[in-house]
Sequence to fold (592 residues):
Amino acid sequence: MKLSRFLLVLAGCLPLSLPSVLATNPAFDTWVDHLTAETMRADPSGATRTQFFTGAEQDALDRQLTPITKAYKAERVDFARRALAELARFDRAQLDPQQLVSARIIEWDLQERIKAAPFEDHLFVFNQFWGLHVTLVNFLSQTHPVRHRRDIENYLARLELVAGQIDEGIAQARDAAQRGFLMPDFITRSVIGQFDRFLGDAPAQNVLVASLDERAARLGDLPPADRAAFVAAAAQIVRGQIIPAFARARSLLQVQLPQTTADAGLWRLPGGAEAYAVRLGYYTTTNLTPQQVHETGRREVARIEAEMDRLFRQLGYTEGSIIERCAKLNLDSQPPADPDPRPGLLARHEEILADAVRRSQSLFDLQPQAPCIVKREPPFTENTAAAHYSTPARDGSRPGIFWAPLPGPVFRMLNLRTLTYHEAIPGHHFQLAVMQELPGLPRFRQDRIFGANSANSEGWALYAEQLAAENGWYEGDPKGQIGQLEAELFRARRLVVDTGIHTLRWTRQQAIDYGLPGMNAATEVDRYVVIPGQACSYKIGQLKILELRAKARAALAGRFSIKEFHNVVLRAGNVPLSVLESIVDDWITAQR
Fold:
């Protein structure tokens, strides 16, 4: 049912005019629930990720993939415009505080969707980070559930749709290229390399087949013969449909490669400056200009490097730049190459995670019930992936997962603690899993269906790194303390590099030479090239949370409680920073 028809039906059920109905709190909740359900019905992949529905409706969506056609995207923009118009009919003065927050989140989200729509071409269909070929493979191999026989049948149904989506992506990439939207040459080569790795495995060893085989093996009630038949069916789809489609995409990029240039930033594309402003505003949830973000980054870099210099001198590292000293200390700390150090590094992450669970008791009242584990990033994406976190399944079938890439041969030894605190506890796992479990939050906020933004979530995770340092979690581990500052320096330098690439016309080499501590600088710079603005969200979000904490501490003095402050921030969920500020301000007023 269309939203407008739903509202008319709602009005007809009650002896009130439509505006009066919309002004009541129950009607707002009903409208939000309907808006959310309609959004998820149009997003089968998102419905699977959140297990939003139950029974036959969820089962039907678990057999589909979210469309990517231009017609579908245009319809979703029209949907957002209609929803905004309907939201505007509500009298905000008649909404309770929780509803008012929800209204502001939905409004921000819908406005951002509309603003972003004209700049779809600037993001590129087949980029190496969130490209169609990457998201499809990761969704099917990592997110699609395999809990029972029917899930496998649904998996096979989805596999049948992959080639069609890849071909639609090819058509869109070809059309965009004809209008001047081509990836830089270095990105194009990187994506061709991804396709080569995917196509290099025999169908039986392909990640879409091997991951199904691995997960199906854990089902105690699935006979081995049935499992073998399912895996053989998956291999046949991969061999006959998916591999040829991926080969067609690779061929397109190979044809486009001679037409590409080394220019990196959005400035080179039609409407590039406006596109970057939109992406920067979306990812930081602020109105900061690129120049303001650039200057903030420069100031933070100077402050953090001064603190790191002091620690390096204590360890006897006095020669070279901060980044050079970071690199030398990391190399001096490498484990032996033989035997393979990766199992030991994963075990170390697990030890740090268990220790973080214990230490968090003194800082947090509110903690998730869902567990968190560490897993190694799959080989298909390990060379280009950053460490990341995936939320638990609502039905308990999947824990929160900290995905740790370990491509080697040089490993990030200084950052083992910091990565664990950021991606798992008390970082992303505490915020996102708690949000899923809070009974007082509307479903759309629990599952981040509207309003999801990286300024809040990544800002919280970077805040979690600093919180650990402030509370002695690095005591006796000076290398780990340097690793924490190195990670913060990395996020500060990101502000400089991202804005430099997209507005100051930095070349890729300039960005690499500026330096990104502890990372493969080329891989990181390439990430910023294809996801403009996102790298700025971390530090901007952290600075806002620290600012709000300082404001609360100053206002409440002896009545300030760090646990209560964390409760407020975590219960708010993944809201835009302006909304978070109003929530904290209201809490300060109430405490007074």
The chain has a mean pLDDT of 93. The beta strands are 372-376, 388-390, 400-404. The chain has three domains: 1-123, 125-262, 274-543. The chain is about 65% helix and 0% strand.
